[in-house]
Fold Rho-GAP domain-containing protein.
Amino acid sequence: MDRIFYRTDSVDPVSNSPIYIFDTSYLPSTDVISYDAFIPTLISLLPQERYVLVMFSCGLNKISWVWGIKFLKAFLAENNNVENVVKIISVHDSWFIKSITDILTNYNFTKKNIASLNRLFDSFVINSNQPDDSPSDDFNKNTIIRCNSLSQLSNYVDIRRLKISLNVYKHDLEVENDIQLSIRFIPLLNPYTRIDRSSHPLFFHHFYQVFNIINANGEKVELLFHKPGNKANTEIFYNCVNRNQLIWINDWNLFCISTAFKKFLHNLPYPMVPLDSIELPIKDDFNYTFTTFSKIIAAHEYNEETTNYSNVLIQLCRLCHGLINANQVTKHTSTSLAKCMSHCLSHQLVSNSSKDVIIVVTRFLRNVLEFWPQISTAYKNYPSIEDIINGKVCPIDKPDDSYDLSYDVTLEEDDENDKKFNSIEILATNRQSIAGSEGPVDKLITPRTSPRRINLPATPSSLSPHKPRSPVRSPKREKLYSPNKPAKSVNFSMRVANKLADVSNIGLQFPPQKYKFSANARKEIDSTPAFLQDTEVVVKKPVIRGRKVGELAKLFEERSQALELLKGM
C-alpha cells in the first residue's frame, strides 16, 4: 500500500496543506484481490486532516469502472472525506476520471449551497448573534485541476519533491517527449560541476549513492557495463538525478543504473583518463603502466577542479578488479571491461574517427586492470566507497530517501508490463479479503492483466482455408498426396502410384530448379479424374458465439450495477 497511497514531504504552496499521492499504476488486478474488501482498506487510509491529493490515473484502465463508482459511494458516505480534500489534481486523466470528478464537484457544491441556505435562514432567528467560527466558503471550496502531463503539474506543485514511480514517467512519455518544468533550476551535472562534498553536495550525494549500488550488486549479474539498460528507463533515471528528483530507486534495474552511471562519467567537465597523459608508444610492462597511472592521479590531485577524480578512478579500478575476480558470474575479463569503460573515462565519442584513440585507451586500461594487485598497494590509504557512504571520511547529511534500499534492487531486466503484487501485503488488515481463498494466498500476478482479456484458442491448421502448400519433388505426387484429399482419393492415388512405378520416367527426377516437362507429360498429369482435381473443401473459421454473448452479458450487468449505485447516491 505504500506505493498506492502515501504522503509526501511536500506541501501545497497555496493552502500549505500536505500533499498525498494516489498512484493507480500500482493498483492490483481483480484476479488476485477482492475489491469489495480492498476499497474499505483504502478508505481507512484517508487522512483525517486537510490535504491535497495528486492522483496519477494512468493505471485505471486495468480495472472495471464499476469499482470506481463503488469507491466514490464509499468516499461520499462520510462527510469528513469530502471536507478534508482541499484540492484534487488529476494527472493523465481519462473520460472516466473526468466523469467521477464532475460528480464529486456537483455533489460538493450542492451540499454547500444547501448549508449556505440553512445558515441564511438561521440568521433571521431572533437573538441569534453567535459568531460563525466556520471557515469561509472560499477556503472550503474544493478545486479539481486536470493536468495532461507532468509539465502541466509543475505549474501547481514542485514535482521534484514528489516521489513519482517509473510507470508514471513512462506513461508521460506517450504524452510529451520531455518534461519542461515551470520553475528554473540548475542541472546538477553542468560544466562547473565538481565531485566535491562542500561545493556540490547534491551531485556528490547522488553520484556516490549510484556508485555504491553498483559496487554492492555488480558481482551478481553478467556483463555489467556491457549490457545496456532500457533506453527510455535509463534516460528517465538520468534526467531525474540531473534535476534532483525524488525517486523510487527500486523501479530501475541494475543495468539501467550502470548505464546512467557511465553517462555521468562521460558528461563530467574533465575526463578521468585524459588521452594526453598516455605517452606513446604504449608499453605493456608494469613500470610503464604504474608510472603513467601515477601521473594521472597526481594531475587530478594537483588541479583543484578535479581533486576527487583520483578517488573515483581508484575506486572504479577496485570495482572492475572485483568484477574480473568473479568472472564465473560476471563473464568479464580485463579486456572486456577496458572496452566497456574506455569511452566514458576518456570522453571520446563512439565513432570511426576516434577508433585509433580508443584502442590506445583500451590497451592502457587493460594493463592497469591486469597489474592492479601490484598497483593497488600504493593506494591503500585512499577511502573506499563504503567509507564515503557511511560518513567515515566526513560526516554527511542525508538529503532524502530516494535511495532507500528497504526493497531489493532489481538485478535483471524485467518485462515492461510485469509488476507483481502480494495480496497479503496490500490487505494486511483483512486477510479474509483475498479472492479465491481456496488457492495459495501468496499468489503473484501482474496488475495489468485485464480480467476481460481472454485468450481465444488458435484456429486449427486443418480448418484454415488458406493453408500454404509445402514444396514437393514431383507434380504428380503434389496432386496425389495432398493433405486436403478425402480418404477415398488417397486409396485411389495409391493404386495410381503403383501403376506409375512401371513407367520409366527416371529422367524427370532432378532438383526442382531443373525440372523440364514435355507437353505429353503435362497432358498425362492433367488426365487425372475430376474428383481428384477439385477436392479442396473450404471450411469457414468457427465463431465462438457463447463467449461473445458472455462478455456482452457481463458488460450489461456491470452497467446496470453502476446505474443502481448512481441512483442510490
